[in-house]
Amino acid sequence: MSIKGVPKYKKIVLELEALIHNGKFPVGGKLPSVVKLCEKYGVSTITAHRSIRELENKGLVKCGKGLQGTTVISIQPPETNEPETIACLLRPFTADYSQQYGKHYMGPSIAIQTILDTISENKCRSIFHSVKEADYESNMLNLIHKNWISGVILDQMTPPSTVKKLTACGKPSVLVGRVQIEENLSVVAPDIGGMCRKMAVFLKDKGYERVGFHPDPDDELILDSIKYYPEHYEEHFRDALATAGIESNRYIKIPEIYHGKKPLRERIMETCGLPKKKPADWTPFAIFTISINLARELTEIIASTDLVLGKDIGVITCFPAFADNRISYWTYDSKELGIETAHAIIQRIRRPKLPPTILKLPVTYVDNGSA
């Protein structure tokens, strides 16, 4: 079967559905293994697993553990009187950034829109509240106690106290973008711990003798009160540096930069300890920042000194809203995050006995020579 414009996993779902409906795979029969699906369709194990999960969400198959395989349990999806309704507390989705940065845009709205699209594709409905609303917590608490709400999706910007309150209602819940352990809460997030471990080894191998971390994100959608966001990264980063054998006295936490009376460029040079001319005792220094704007400022400032970017000083960021080919960064597949989040909540709703899970998505490093 060849369907133009349809994702690979969806093509597999459509073909397997057809084979189930026409009796090729009868009730009680087994689907091909993930390995065989990969070989037949030329896809990765992630894509094959996603296809199987969608068939499971449709009520056609049941996934067994280990060698038990995937068993057909129905030739038709179960009939429901009403579609499940999922309450979503997310950042506002707008096209502003994607219009501004075009093909370079990689921001959260891609993941958010994919969540909403995948919910719709699975014959569910979504109700959207934004973390920018002044009374978002009370709105969500009122909403999720409605009998017709089947599950909840929460954005990584939701404060931990709010996550705790919202998950205490007992409805199936998924937190997207970061890890928080709560009863009844599943998590889908990029593997920040894995990223930090890889980065620590990379910086050590590159010969950086000092490592700095700047914790303040500058995303206008991040509320000032959300202090756990940078702390989440710093904890993983410091642990990773220690594991890689980088002594604690070589770690520098760079303080807040964006507020002050002096011009921004002067504040950055002073706070980060950047000289206009490299002193004789200068030791290689790498800066990890979760602010793409600071990373851009740093590369411009470094260009005005005699420091060599990528040798005397390195600059790395992660999960930027847009790509900049001057800056090295860590990233993940935003669409993958959205799809996995939607599938996680739908599976929890339709199979309520399933325990909460934590799915960490792989991150990749884009080396643009700044570190």
Distinct helical segment count? 12
Oligomeric status: single chain
Order of helices and strands: HHHEEEHHEHEHEEHEHEHEHEEHEE
Poorly predicted regions? 219-228
Distance between the termini: 45 Å
Major β-sheet annotation: 6 strands, parallel
- What structural class do you assign from the helix and strand content? alpha/beta
Strand share of the residues?
15-25%
Helix content range of the residues, please? 25-40%
Q: Rg from C-alpha positions?
A: 23 Å
Strand order of the largest sheet: 4-3-5-6-7-13
Keywords:
371 residues; alpha/beta; 6-stranded parallel sheet; 6-stranded mixed sheet; 14 strands; elongated
Describe the structure in your own words.
This protein has helices at residues 8-21, 34-41, 45-57, 96-101, 108-121, 136-144, 160-167, 192-205, 228-243, 264-272, 292-303, 334-350, and strands at 61-63, 70-72, 85-90, 125-130, 149-155, 173-176, 185-190, 210-214, 251-253, 285-289, 313-318, 328-331, 358-361, 364-366. By secondary structure, it is of the alpha/beta class. The strands form 3 sheets. The chain has a 6-stranded parallel beta sheet with strand order 4-3-5-6-7-13, with helices on both faces. A 6-stranded mixed beta sheet has the order 9-8-10-11-12-14, sandwiched between helices. Helix 11 (292-303) links the parallel strand 10 and strand 11. The protein starts with 7 loop residues before the first helix and ends in a 5-residue tail after the last strand. The model is unreliable at 219-228 (pLDDT under 50).
Write the layout of secondary structure elements.
Layout: H1 8-21, H2 34-41, H3 45-57, E1 61-63, E2 70-72, E3 85-90, H4 96-101, H5 108-121, E4 125-130, H6 136-144, E5 149-155, H7 160-167, E6 173-176, E7 185-190, H8 192-205, E8 210-214, H9 228-243, E9 251-253, H10 264-272, E10 285-289, H11 292-303, E11 313-318, E12 328-331, H12 334-350, E13 358-361, E14 364-366
Parallel strand pairs: 3-4, 3-5, 5-6, 6-7, 7-13, 8-9, 8-10, 10-11, 11-12
Antiparallel strand pairs: 1-2, 12-14
